[in-house]
Amino acid sequence: MSPLLPPPGAPRLGLGLAALGRPGYINLGHGQDVGADKDVEALRARAWEVLDAAWSAGLRYFDAARSYGRAEEFLGGWLKARGHEATVGSKWGYTYTADWRTDAETHEVKDHRLATLERQWPETLAALGRRPEIYLIHSATLETGVLKDERVLARLAELAAGGVRVGLSTSGPKQADTLSKALAARVDGVNPFSVVQATWNLLEPSAGEALAEAHAAGWGVVVKEAVANGRLTSRAEVPPALAHLCAEQDITPDAVALAAALAQPWADMVLSGATTVEQLQSNLASLRLTLNLEALGNLAQPPERYWGERAGLAWT
């Protein structure tokens, strides 16, 4: 069985730790959610609280990255302490540089060279205390040249041959182009990649066709940012059609947004990015929704506008 697929009875909803492993993130209201106490132990306790709630709700897929502060450490410690078996995904290619500050000038630095991969893979093993089932290039783009770097591809092929499912996450208005390039990658005639994690949501669905192609090719597909970093939650002024549906059915925008992603036939797993147990509970309502997506109409923004607005979100 693919490690992306949940065990019988488990939902296709997973938990991403981007907002749980560090004191600053770009989700709307993140600083308010974390609260005044932002030291390491306070955030560890918060992460474990949300992880416990996710586990109790049946979630069995957890996603981290080297750049998510101490997310891998928090997740690995929680899994060991609780004795849980779960599917874990992580990512390499960004280095966390904020030094646990929310006002840092730079929070993370991207570098897709082989040296970064060779440094971060053992760091991930140490932090998690185990090998992740899924290991992704973090925010691969055509501009970094990582998908043409033969040494990086060869090293990832070695990991794949050892049983790790390797792949890439995508970001930016050219997600589909990046994924098409990855689908064509070869090392000794074999594509080392078999997983993609991409942004797809009601505001930015442009990667949908490429994700369907990846799914048809046998790749695992994970959806991130389904609530658009809070822009599809009650913290934002949501599109009128979405607001009307929520009022009519007494549901929250985040649940609708996640349900829309879960409704995509190519989506193997959809990530919640909850920072609090209350947010997670609201997200979980998506599993009980049956949506008429046509009633929402087309909420999509031009990709360049969407990603431009995302780039302007404040770290709090």
From TrEMBL:
<protein>
    <recommendedName>
        <fullName>NADP-dependent oxidoreductase domain-containing protein</fullName>
    </recommendedName>
</protein>
<feature type="domain" description="NADP-dependent oxidoreductase">
    <location>
        <begin position="44"/>
        <end position="294"/>
    </location>
</feature>
<dbReference type="Pfam" id="PF00248">
    <property type="entry name" value="Aldo_ket_red"/>
</dbReference>
<dbReference type="InterPro" id="IPR023210">
    <property type="entry name" value="NADP_OxRdtase_dom"/>
</dbReference>
<dbReference type="InterPro" id="IPR036812">
    <property type="entry name" value="NAD(P)_OxRdtase_dom_sf"/>
</dbReference>
<dbReference type="InterPro" id="IPR053135">
    <property type="entry name" value="AKR2_Oxidoreductase"/>
</dbReference>
